[in-house]
Automatic annotation (TrEMBL):
Family under the similarity heading: Belongs to the class-III pyridoxal-phosphate-dependent aminotransferase family. ArgD subfamily.
HAMAP family documented for this protein: ArgD_aminotrans_3
PTM annotation (N6-(pyridoxal phosphate)lysine): residues: 247
Originating species: Holtiella tumoricola
Keywords assigned by UniProt, alphabetized: Amino-acid biosynthesis, Aminotransferase, Arginine biosynthesis, Cytoplasm, Pyridoxal phosphate, Transferase
InterPro entries noted in UniProt: AcOrn/SuccOrn_fam, Aminotrans_3, Aminotrans_3_PPA_site, Class-III_PLP-dep_AT, PyrdxlP-dep_Trfase, PyrdxlP-dep_Trfase_major, PyrdxlP-dep_Trfase_small
Protein's UniProt name: Acetylornithine aminotransferase
Further remarks about this protein from its record: May also have succinyldiaminopimelate aminotransferase activity, thus carrying out the corresponding step in lysine biosynthesis.
Cofactor binding note from Swiss-Prot or TrEMBL: Binds 1 pyridoxal phosphate per subunit.
The protein's enzyme class: transferase
EC number: 2.6.1.11
One cellular component (GO) term of this entry: cytoplasm
Length: 391
């Protein structure tokens, strides 16, 4: 049996749900028995164009038959065109491609350190926020100010300081001229969809400016259209120096990216690199995703359908006491429950609905960006049916 084979040979780093997924079509995914699931999780905000998206398939098939990988010793068209497209629509100057969110944050931290030491040998301090999540490699893990992720792996990377999210007083106390960078999410995803205050973020930006520290916004989850704008920060009236992104960018292929303004465009040959980064398949996918968002009205669709989803969930909250709070933006919505999330998620799977947990009692809706009203209605009906079992 597949599950036995897994427990024998795959390192036990994941607690998996009891389902073997096999294929997908649009917003639906099928298991090995052919059972159909409505996917409101997108493989954790990754499958931005759903499954078997015709335009994506066509581009990838074309590229597959031409060339998959070259390394970064040579020029390739998809990588360069994708960087230009990202720059055009984001307003950032330059892009570095890697393969995941954690890698994007590693690069951003290195950029912040280099920015710092180029001015003063002691300007090496990073600041991040409690409840944040930035990834599992050492730099990103150190930036992830959550004991549960760090505990077995100490010591962490030196030079990181933690302050409370949404607490500007604490940041004022901790930031100094030795701070080289501040990293945070505008909506904390993994810890349960916590949205930053607009005024707070403006103050964070001002402090970064006053102390000449780079403001790094981690858009690994919020980026690439997820919240209804290409990047979420633009809805908060701030101008970061660096943003990192990944998840939805490759529509299912592994890719990460760091976008920098002029001021942070400081890496030179030899400073950083990765064998697979910006490979032809991943950047071909990213090109399709950005094209759909910015040139084919997908961003506008996310805004409309996101509002519809939120309205429906607000109504559900009025009907069901078990729904304590509904928060988030666009198609990144958290539903806080008074009952344990994991039970609810398991029951949803039984009913044919995939949703994602966040913390003990929050479930996340991170559906494909192409979702339609009928899918929202179906998802809310199924979720309500599951919640009713607890009333
Ligand atoms: C998922 C996530 C990461 C880590 O990305 P990986 O691709 O899993 O390394 C980093 N930051 C945020 C905000 C995330 O949601």
């Amino acid at each position: 049996m597949l599950k036995d084979l897994e427990s024998q040979h795959v390192m036990h780093t994941y607690n998996r749900f009891d389902v073997v997924l096999d294929r997908g079509e649009g917003c639906y995914i099928y298991d090995n028995y052919g059972k159909k699931y409505l996917d409101m999780g997108s493989g954790i905000a990754v499958n931005s164009l759903g499954y078997s998206h015709p335009k994506l398939m066509k581009s990838l098939e074309g590229q597959l038959h031409k060339l998959m990988h070259t390394s970064n010793l040579y020029y390739t068209k998809p990588q360069i065109e994708t960087a230009a497209l990202l720059a055009k629509y984001s307003g950032f100057k330059k892009v570095f491609f890697c393969n995941s969110g954690t890698e994007a944050n590693e690069a951003a931290i290195k950029i912040a350190r280099k920015h710092g030491v180029s001015q003063s040998p002691t300007k090496t301090q990073m600041i991040s926020m409690t409840g944040g999540f930035h990834g599992r490699t050492y730099g990103a893990l150190t930036a992830t100010a959550q004991e549960k992720y760090q505990a077995p792996f100490k010591p962490m990377v030196p030079g990181f300081n933690y302050v409370e999210y949404n607490n500007i007083q604490q940041l004022k106390q901790v930031i100094t001229h030795d701070t080289c960078g501040v990293i945070l999410e505008v909506i904390q995803g993994e810890s349960g969809i916590h949205v930053a205050d607009k005024c707070y973020l403006k103050e964070v930006m001002k402090l970064c400016h006053d102390y000449n520290a780079l403001l790094i916004i981690d858009e690994v989850q919020t980026g690439v259209g997820r919240t209804g704008s290409l990047f979420a920060y633009s809805q908060f009236d701030i101008e970061p120096d660096v943003i990192t992104t990944a998840k939805g960018l490759g529509a299912g292929l592994p890719i990460g990216a760091v976008l920098v303004k002029e001021k942070a465009d400081i890496l030179v040959p030899g400073d950083h690199g990765t064998t697979f980064g910006g490979n032809l398949m991943a950047t071909t996918a990213a090109q399709v995703v950005i094209g759909e968002l910015c040139e084919n009205n997908l961003l506008q669709h996310v805004q409309e359908i996101g509002n519809y989803l939120k309205e429906k969930l607000e109504c559900l909250k009025k009907r069901k006491n078990e729904v304590v709070d509904v928060r988030g933006m666009g198609l990144m919505i958290g539903i806080e429950l008074s009952i344990p999330a994991r039970h609810v998620i398991n029951q949803c799977i039984e009913e044919g609905l995939l949703v994602i947990g966040a913390g003990e009692n929050v479930i996340r809706f991170l559906p494909p960006l192409i979702i339609e009203k009928q899918h929202v209605d179906e998802a809310v009906t199924l979720l309500e049916k599951v919640i009713e079992q607890y009333s």
